[in-house]
Structures are given as C-alpha cells and as structure tokens.
Amino acid sequence: MNRLKRKLPLQACPTVIFAMGGERPKRVLKKHLEYDSPYNTYKNPGLPPGPIRFVSTQSINAVLNYTKHNYLYFSAKEDFSGSHYFSTTLSQHNAYAARYQRALDKAGIR
C-alpha cells in the first residue's frame, strides 16, 4: 500500500515468477525482470491485472484493513520458511536480499 500511495513500482519478484508460468525460475535473475507480461510489476506500474494466486478471505481482509506502517520493501528470509523481512530503507532491504542470495548460493540454487 505504501508503494502504491507513493506511486513507486511494486517490483515484486513473485509477480515475475507468476508471469513466467511454466518457465518459472528457481531464482529470479535480472534477465527475468524483463519478461514481457502485464503481471510483471518491474515493467508495469500499479497492481497486476489480477491475483497471482488463489486469494483467501484473510488476504482480502488484510488489504482492506491493512495495518499502517512505513515499510516499502520486502525480502524472503534466508531460512526458506516462506516468511519475509520488511524494511523502510533500500539499504536495509539490500542487506536482507543479500542474506537470501547467499542462502540460495549455499543451497546451489541457480
């Protein structure tokens, strides 16, 4: 919500992975960010044209009644738990992203 309010691109890797469909990478690389799709939030401003997965009632409620905060970025946690780190600054986000990238390297995910 904060990125949308500030008219910042969402730049969310999950939208790129969804857009790629059957070609889904195990690791999103810079070349994947150029994938041509209306779902690619690195190339297209605003929200994608539809959900990128089945949307639960809980997810809908979370958007409609979102908690106000200052976070602008998120990065997957390096433990592959599916949880994320949230940050307010690009430098903090980059530090979290580097942790995740090192974990991918260690796991041999290319």
Widest beta sheet: strand line-up: 1-2
Distance between the termini: 31 Å
Order of helices and strands: HHHEEH
Briefly note the structural class of the backbone. Answer: mainly alpha
| Main sheet properties | 2 strands, antiparallel
Poorly predicted parts? none
- Beta-strand segment tally: 2
Radius of gyration: 14 Å
Helix content: 25-40%
Q: In DSSP terms, counting alpha (H) and pi (I) runs of 4 or more, how many helices?
A: 4
Q: Roughly what is the average pLDDT, rounded to an integer?
A: 94
Tell me, briefly, the overall form. globular
Percentage beta strand: 5-15%
How many domain regions? 2
Account of the protein in words:
By secondary structure, this protein is mainly alpha-helical. It has 2 domains: 1-65, no CATH class; 69-110, Double Stranded RNA Binding Domain (2-Layer Sandwich), CATH 3.30.160. Helix content is 33%, strand content 7%. The chain contains 4 helices and 2 strands; from the N terminus they run H-H-H-E-E-H. The protein has helices at 2-5, 13-19, 57-64, 90-106, and strands spanning 73-76, 84-87. Strands 1-2 form a two-stranded antiparallel ribbon. The chain is globular. The mean pLDDT is 94.
Describe how the helices and strands are arranged:
Elements: H1 2-5, H2 13-19, H3 57-64, E1 73-76, E2 84-87, H4 90-106
Antiparallel strand pairs: 1-2
Summarize this, please?
The chain is mainly α and 110 residues long. It is 33% helix and 7% strand.
What are the main properties of this structure?
mainly alpha; 2 domains; 4 helices
